Amino acid sequence: MSEPMTVLNSDREILLEVRDLRVEYATQNGPVEAVAGVDLTLAKGEFLGVVGESGCGKSTMLFGIAQLLNPPATVSGGEVLFKGENLVAMTAKSLNALRWRDFSVVMQSAMNALNPVHSIGRQFKDAIKAHARWPESQIKARSAEVLELVGIDPVHLKSFPHQLSGGMRQRAMIAMALLFTPDLIVMDEPTSALDVVAQRSLMAQIKELQKQLGFAVIFVTHDMSLVSHFSDRLMVMYAGQVVELGGTRAVFDAPAHPYSRGLLDAFPSIRGEVKRLTGIPGAPPNLGRPPSGCRFHPRCPVAMERCSVDVPELYLVDSVQARCLLHEPAAVSVEVES
Ligand SMILES: Nc1ncnc2c1ncn2[C@@H]1O[C@H](COP(=O)(O)OP(=O)(O)OP(=O)(O)O)[C@@H](O)[C@H]1O
């Protein structure tokens, strides 16, 4: 396996290094590889957006990184080095010691993640007690502090999840993730259950907190436009693989992979030129039997004959990486010569 490229990171210290991560679901028809060899490095304090259509493996990758997969899913290969330690090889006990303290996870729906029969304050207290022996007064003070950080009046420590609005519940989840000011927060579509206005305001708040507290974020969404203003780098996933990775601005300005271009064309631009939204015809493949060659070739508007045969790697295109044979160094030099 080739060494993962780290050229896209700044000089900042590396917090997370994912090497050739593979996740399989065991099914009656054999294994389905939902994450097929992802390489990624994340610097301290960096905000990475992960985008792609439904079923491309974004959540599975996130859960694979956080070691939160449950059967039938298992990590079938690769390493997740968090501050130099491989989470994949860690015991459940060591992982539990890291969770909340060093990294935390915010799920799609706080209604499912929060316990409906306990008050918010009780749930914060349980999370703290699992990791620290703080006196009652410190638990109360910290719980109130993190709620205030996300713009919720601390009186709501007494509230039960159903007594809060959807936006407040998501904020409460983020507050809980901040209890120990971790170095990394992974977020799986934390705004998807909210209306557009609440979505933007929560995004802005996450970004503000991130700047203030310095944690890194991996933010999964299927909405390109949502992360456009907030993420430093963007990872585009298709059929379990990274198909493009680069600075968010660079990917938006000149997407190097036809799939990224298709995703961008599927969302309206607020300030850009008015154009017809085209999107991408067809649907992501069944990962039990992914297409030969380039996994995107059956839907690709610029596919060449060899795309159904030759397997593309991630190639460097200016400052981004793209998994497309159009950018294979040999193909590019032939084009230049002719
Ligand atoms: N329980 C399961 N058994 C078999 N395959 C599964 C199972 N759950 C997910 N998969 C496979 O894993 C793939 C990736 O799913 P995943 O939920 O990670 O995608 P996603 O990009 O996060 O989608 P979404 O945006 O809808 O959450 C799916 O295409 C599906 O084929």
UniProtKB/TrEMBL annotation:
Residues 18-264 form the ABC transporter domain. NCBIfam families: oligo_HPY (TIGR01727). Gene3D superfamilies: P-loop containing nucleotide triphosphate hydrolases (3.40.50.300). SMART domains: AAA. GO terms for molecular function: ATP binding. PANTHER family: MALTOSE ABC TRANSPORTER, ATP-BINDING PROTEIN (PTHR43067:SF3), OLIGOPEPTIDE/DIPEPTIDE ABC TRANSPORTER, ATPASE SUBUNIT (PTHR43067). Keywords: ATP-binding, Nucleotide-binding, Transport. InterPro entries: AAA+_ATPase, ABC_transporter-like_ATP-bd, ABC_transporter-like_CS, Oligopep_ABC_C, P-loop_NTPase. Pfam families: ABC_tran (PF00005), oligo_HPY (PF08352). This is ABC transporter ATP-binding protein.
